[in-house]
Every structure is written in C-alpha cells, then in structure tokens.
C-alpha cells in the first residue's frame, strides 16, 4: 500500500494558478495519459502535470544521451523521459511492489530495451556507478536522503549536466522554523534545508528553484568539486 503524501495537497502557488498549469497546458495522450490517470486515481506519488510539461520542454533543449532516475515508483517519469528523448535510461528503486508495477508498465509500453531498473538501495547504486556517466539525473526519492545522495550524483554527472531534484519546498513548510515542524517530518526538514544551503550558492554549480509541483530544484554542474564532506554527516 502506497503511503499517503500530504504534500500533494499543499500547493506552493495558489490553487487557481496550479489548476491552470495542470489543465490548460498541452495534455498527454495514449499510454502516458492512461498511466497519469491511474496514478491520479490511486494517489500514486508521480510528478504533476506542470512538471511533466516543463520536463518535456527541458529535455527537448538538453537532448540528453544518458539519464539516471533515483526513485522509479510506477515508472511514470521514466516513461516520459523515454517518450521525449532518445536517451538510455537507468532508474533506481528499492520497493518490490513499485518495481513490479514499473516493470509491467515498461513492458506494456515497449520500453524494456530503453529503460533499465536498478533494484536495491539508491545509496549503494550511486556509490558504484562510474564517474561522468550521465548528462541528466532526476532525483525523486526519500527527501531526507537528498543531502547524502548529492555527492555521488555530482560525481557521476558530466560537466554541464543537469540534476533535477523534486519536492524541495515541502508545501512551503521548508521556510518554517524547525520547532514548528511535526516531529515525524523534522528530519526531512533539517536535511532539506542543509542540502539547499550547500547547493544554492556553491561556486561549482548554477542552481535555481521553480515553484512547480512541490518545488523543482535544477542544478547545472559547471566544474568538478568533491562534495564527499556531505557523506560524512
């Protein structure tokens, strides 16, 4: 059973603008639309349509050759990447239920030759993937792990490659004092703030946050830098 994500109901922009971005931008069709509808009905945590629209535009600009996704879920984002690029895609997932659902979707969509699921813990996979392998990485996994995963993401990302990180604003609660955050999500709050503190003003990076979905962080790696100090916490 998929856990309910309360942040899905806390837009970081007003509801009218959010609804406009979701309903009035060009819609998906075919199997992608079917999967999007199923995810909406079942409350599966997939990227919302405003993020889909942005990624379609962005990928057309970047034209990546090798994509890594951290957090497969049901395979929706990876299917978008496969539909709108010619890249080879690898995607990491540890949840057996999500793996089976993603595999079934990739088979149904004829994507098994384009998308490879790396089964297991993301941290372990990120440590052993070769340096400078990917020109686009999408991180949409456990939010408290973004800080820890970032050093290896930068190591395996090519110079001038882009790392996109989803859900960094936490329904706007990222700006609240720690003592106002419920204890059950306080670790996420602390780690996300520590993560943003490092990446938003680092000289080796160009970073920006877009207020779509629950906050999409985009980072371009401009030069090599050893971020392994973040793994020592």
Automatic annotation (TrEMBL):
Entry-linked Pfam families: Methyltransf_3 (PF01596)
Gene Ontology BP terms: tRNA methylation
Gene3D superfamilies with a match to the protein in the record: Vaccinia Virus protein VP39
Record's keyword terms, sorted: Methyltransferase, S-adenosyl-L-methionine, Transferase, tRNA processing
List of residues binding S-adenosyl-L-methionine: 47, 77, 93, 140
Transmembrane segments: none
Listed PROSITE patterns: SAM_OMT_I
Annotated EC: 2.1.1.-
Catalytic activity: 5-hydroxyuridine(34) in tRNA + S-adenosyl-L-methionine = 5-methoxyuridine(34) in tRNA + S-adenosyl-L-homocysteine + H(+)
Enzyme class (EC, first level): transferase
GO molecular function: O-methyltransferase activity; S-adenosylmethionine-dependent methyltransferase activity; tRNA (uridine) methyltransferase activity
Family classification: Belongs to the class I-like SAM-binding methyltransferase superfamily. Cation-dependent O-methyltransferase family.
Functional summary from the UniProt entry: Catalyzes the methylation of 5-hydroxyuridine (ho5U) to form 5-methoxyuridine (mo5U) at position 34 in tRNAs.
Subunit structure: Homodimer.
UniProt name for this protein: tRNA 5-hydroxyuridine methyltransferase
Annotated gene: trmR
């Amino acid at each position: 059973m998929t856990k309910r994500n309360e942040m899905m109901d806390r837009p970081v922009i007003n509801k009218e603008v959010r609804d406009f971005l979701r309903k009035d931008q060009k819609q998906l069709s075919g199997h992608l639309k079917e999967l999007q509808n199923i995810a909406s009905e079942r409350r599966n945590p997939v990227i919302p349509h405003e993020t889909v629209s942005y990624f379609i535009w962005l990928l057309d600009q970047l034209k990546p050759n090798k994509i890594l996704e951290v957090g497969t879920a049901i395979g929706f984002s990876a299917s978008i990447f496969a539909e709108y690029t010619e890249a080879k895609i690898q995607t990491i997932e540890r949840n057996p239920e999500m793996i089976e659902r993603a595999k079934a979707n990739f088979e149904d969509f004829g994507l098994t030759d384009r998308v490879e699921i790396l089964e297991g813990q993301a941290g372990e996979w990120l440590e052993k993937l070769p340096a400078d392998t990917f020109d686009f990485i999408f991180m949409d996994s456990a939010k408290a792990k973004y800080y820890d995963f970032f050093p290896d993401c930068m190591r395996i990302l090519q110079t001038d490659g882009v790392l996109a990180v989803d859900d960094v604003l936490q329904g706007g609660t990222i700006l609240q004092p720690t003592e106002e955050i419920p204890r059950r999500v306080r670790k996420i709050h602390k780690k996300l703030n520590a993560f943003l503190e490092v990446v938003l003003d680092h000289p080796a990076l160009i970073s920006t946050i877009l207020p779509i979905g629950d906050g999409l962080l985009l980072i371009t790696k401009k030069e090599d830098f050893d971020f392994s100090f973040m793994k020592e916490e």
